[in-house]
Amino acid sequence: MKTDIQIANEASIEPIVKIASSINIAEEDLELFGRYKAKLSDSLWDKVKHKNNGKLVLVTAINPTPAGEGKTTITVGLGQAMGKLGINAMIALREPSLGPCMGIKGGAAGGGYAQVIPMEDINLHFTGDIHAVSIAHNLLSALLDNHLQQGNDLNIDTRQIVWKRVMDMNDRALRNTIVGLGGRLQGVPREDGFMISVASEVMAILCLANDLEDLKRRLGEIIVAYNFEGAPVTAHDLKAEGAMAALLKDAIKPNIVQTLENTPVIIHGGPFANIAHGCNSIRATKYALKLADLVITEAGFGADLGAEKFLDIKCTKAGFKPDAIVLVATIRALKYNGGVQKSDLSQENVEAVRKGFVNLEKHIENLNKYKVPVVVTLNSFVTDSDKEIAYVKDACEKMGCEFALAQVWQKGGIGGVDLAKKVLHTLENKVSHFQPLYDINDTIKNKIKKIATEIYGAQDVKYTAKASKSIKKIEELGLSNLPVCIAKTQYSLSDNPKLLGRPSNFDITVSEISISAGAEFIVVLTGDVMTMPGLPKKPSAESIDINKDGVITGLF
To answer: Which residues have a catalytic role annotated?
Structure first.
């Protein structure tokens, strides 16, 4: 069996200028990064901004399992399938982070015969956007520590500095650090730490900003610390936003690449799906909606995290109204949720599928609350039995959902034609009446409880003393009328990763709350969520190699 990168290397890749011309983008509106990738220029936006928007389809999934769900693979395959049907479709994705790529997850550009290429570039440095975010973020850290060293005119309380440093790699040893050691000339000693770059508020801002001016304004509003009187100290107070925006002047421009079947793809931004909102940039989606009749995008992790944030944060802020949602599941994942061990997932077990279906059922119910039509698709595996597939199909249709089996990993676009037809049928025959889950002007605790009880299925929400104190602080700052971005485990609907299926009789415990004033949302931490992941016992990096001809292997 060929690996993903072998399939990608054998693909017939077209110059990006040719791909762009297929959707009426002139070469003069591209900023080329070699032959096969480019950025979309601001001049292009001026040409297309008056066009009508295409239809918007979100791809999401049930809670992730070790068996894998293939959400990006389905997204790419669905876009390729639309091309087979002659539909002017465009795919809009996030950029992969190097941390998960070198850690446990591997590449994130789809899989099999439903991939985005050049996949090795996309999975590694791509066009440098994440590096630009890292540098802009760490510039603010450097300016902050320099301000302390040069006399601390802003009266910053070093015990109340909330701005950590970042790097785009899983490195648990950097989660908690001490900086400024070595004597008076080396800085002011204080506690610090690192997050992974995609968890940076700078990344969230990049993906939520409308343009360069909006980006600079938001960067200036980042709260980095509090002074001894308890007042916030911002990046603007440190005179940092101008230089930060300058470092991001190219990173804010969306990137265009292609699928294995030469379907155009915009990839831009990569906010963590826990600590941030887990969606590609507003700018990327806006470009795609003007350039295509149908835009297929995705949100990180399961629908309880990524889709909820896409719908309640991104769509609310950008004014997007999704026309349909594709919910991805696999027979293997349903059996895992039904209590089957990973080693036994290849064996037919209709009863386990029935037990595990409750997870899919809950996600369908959740998405229906947004009043957007739902299409369920099973990402096909050769071990799936006809009886198992038939059970899921019947159960989904009883819930009023269109259902389709997708074989895009094995067959590419042709394997997604049935799914594409079901999506098109839904768009033509079911009307979306999209509405957010909660009122943005409700109290912080009410917004959190709405998500916890209605999306997760919790009984109640418990708060640590630290979290309650933070809520009071946010209210005093007049920033409570922002959406909430809840970070919790992706593996369960609850905040306990071991509770599979459809947990009940549980509470959500909020351990910490902070304000991302520039991104304009409130971050709510639950459980043991890490903003700097660690590497597993056998990191994916150990399998990645490059030969004397520059051919990379091991990237999934």
So the answer is: 71, 73, 94, 105, 273, 301, 381, 409
